[in-house]
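Fold this sequence, please.
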Amino acid sequence: MTMRNFYHTKQAGFTLVETILYLSLLVVIVNLIAGVGLHVLSSMLAVDGDEELQYNTLFITEKIKQAISESGSILSPLPGQASSTVVLEVSDPDLDPFVLWLEEGSLWSQSGSNLPMELSGEAVSLSEIIFTNVTQSSSTESLNVTFVMELANVSNRSELAASTSVSFTNNLSYP
């Protein structure tokens, strides 16, 4: 064997250093892709939570406004007073009175002798609701409603924490 053939022998495969280098690059690339994927997933969960909160807030607001608008008078709270429960008089004797109240983070309603019905969903929690009778003497009865709704964050992840505060005043229907 000549000196020339000794240095130019054909090698097959990768050396150990090349294999370690390629595996290191592969690990870095996989970690980057996984990090981006987890960030996207976390963002999607936060957006879904915000949408759920907005949907429930809109639903509760519309249900309360509808109940107030369709009622004949406010039985409780009295003018100038506030309460976490409102009692409304309605024209249908089977549905009279209509009551809204907060119990263990959920908004409940009851019409007449019907069974109570939960209005807020399981994905949200109301931490506070205040019904204030803002009726002025000799004017249409009005009720101010203020509530705070939070997303039920059972995993206590900061990116899933969301809450909203709503306040509105609604007049009762004219007789």
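Helices lie at 3-7, 16-69. The two ends are 115 Å apart (CA to CA).
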